[in-house]
Design brief:
Helix content: 25-40%
Largest sheet: 5 strands, antiparallel
Radius of gyration: 21 Å
Number of helices: 8
Shape: globular
Number of strands: 14
């Protein structure tokens, strides 16, 4: 782990770049982004077909431009390594201690946000809800209905239990939070709630609410912060039930098919957990 990253976590926002590996249909193309061996920088260079026409601002003579971040992870970095490098165990512990913690994924379509945050297991569960007649594997076909109807049966597909090496940050945070709660159970009593909303076309939608979807209002609260009125807060009894509730919420998100992903998210999604504790 980068010691400077570890020492400065408590004082400021950390920015970590993860470069996804190439897809099969990209195997013959130039690699435009590479990570420095020490994991501190990414280098961007335009492909040869574009280099003669345009140049990156501040680029070197060979057309490359480097950008420095708190950490830069190459495409062969595992989900577990990402968890460790970002110090997410510390963030989970801080949340249980009463601090506000945010994990934010940002990137263009097909850059790997869903894989990083949700992971393939939970993603496949959502895909099977969207299209229960299809096998539980990802597809790159763009001919599928981008807004398939919900399944006609109430039976949910078998749910993945426990953590695997390629599970995303959401599942890891949930499981580690409940492990932390169990470790503190002799001193503190916890209650956990979750909410999940979508921002799409400037409308805020409650993804955990039962019944017809409706746009919610965002207003200032008494402390000068923002709150979403009438947003559903569900109690979380354990990691499995918590993720099952989120599975149903994420199923309701707006998606569209494209070349890289049959169920690409078309919106912003905000999942919030509230940990309330009191001494025994």
């Amino acid at each position: 782990m980068n010691k400077s990253l570890e020492d400065s976590r408590s004082s400021r926002v950390q920015v970590v770049v993860r470069v996804r590996p190439q897809f099969k249909h990209e195997s013959g193309e130039d690699v435009a982004i590479t990570c420095a061996p020490d994991g501190s920088k990414v280098q961007v260079i335009l492909p040869e077909r574009l280099a003669e026409k345009q140049r990156l601002p501040g680029a070197t003579k060979n057309g490359a431009r480097s950008y420095e971040f708190d950490a830069c992870l190459s495409g062969n970095v595992s989900q577990e390594d990402l968890w460790d490098v970002c110090g997410l165990q510390e963030l989970v512990e801080a949340a249980l201690d009463g601090y506000c913690v945010t994990i934010f994924a940002y990137g263009q379509t097909g850059s790997g946000k869903t894989y990083t945050m949700i992971g393939p297991h939970l993603s496949r569960q959502i895909e099977r809800l969207k299209n229960p007649s299809q096998p539980s594997t990802s597809s790159s076909s763009s001919s599928a209905d981008p807004n398939p109807p919900p399944p006609s049966t109430d039976a949910a597909p078998p749910f993945h239990v426990g953590l695997d090496s390629d599970d995303g940050l959401l599942s890891r945070c949930v499981y580690n939070a409940f492990e932390g709660i169990a470790a503190r159970s002799d001193r503190h009593e916890f209650s956990v709630t979750e909410s999940c909303l979508e921002i799409y076309n400037e409308n805020v939608t409650d993804l955990l609410a039962n019944g017809k979807e409706k746009s919610l209002q965002v207003k200032l609260d008494a402390r000068g912060g923002f709150q979403v009125e009438n947003l559903t807060q569900l109690a979380c009894q354990g990691p499995l039930s918590t993720l099952k509730q989120l599975q149903k919420a994420l199923f309701r998100r707006h998606t569209r098919a494209h070349r890289l992903n049959e169920y690409s998210s078309r919106s912003h999604c905000l999942i919030t957990f509230v940990f309330a504790s009191r001494e025994r």
